[in-house]
Amino acid sequence: MLANGAKLEFKSKTVTTYTKLKGLKEIPEIGVDPEKVENTDLDDTQKMYEMGIGDPGDITYKFKYDNTAKDSPYRVVRAYEASGENLSFKETLKDGTTTEFTGQVSVKRTGGGVNGVIEFDLNIALSSAFEITDPEIA
Description:
Elements: E1 7-11, E2 19-20, E3 24-26, E4 33-38, E5 49-55, E6 59-64, H1 73-83, E7 87-92, E8 98-109, E9 119-126, E10 131-133
Antiparallel strand pairs: 1-2, 1-7, 3-6, 4-5, 6-9, 7-8, 8-9, 8-10
C-alpha cells in the first residue's frame, strides 16, 4: 500500500474534534521494539529471556513548509511547542487504519539550496501508548 492518502490530525485538551495538519509529506514507522531482558535462573542450562518494555524510537512527521496564514501547520505547531502542552494525535492511513497517541511536540525547519524545497519536521515525544484501530471489513 502506498503512503499516499495518509493524514495526521491533532487536538488540544480543550478541543473535542481533530484538526487536519495540511502539507504532510512523510509518516514515521509506528510500533515498539521491546528490549530483550535476560532472566536465567540457576536451574537453566542456557540463558532465558523475556520481552521487556519497548522503545518506539523517534516519531517524526515531515511537512511542506508554509507559513503564510494563521492556520499554517508550521505556525500552529510552533505555538504548541512554546506552550509545552501535550496534544492528542490521530494518524489515518488510506485503508482506514488509525493510530492514536499523545505527546509533546517540537518543530525543526529544514535547510534548503538551489532547487531544494524547505520542509519542517514535527517531532513528537510520546506520552501514551499507540492505540491502533483496524478498518472495518466490508
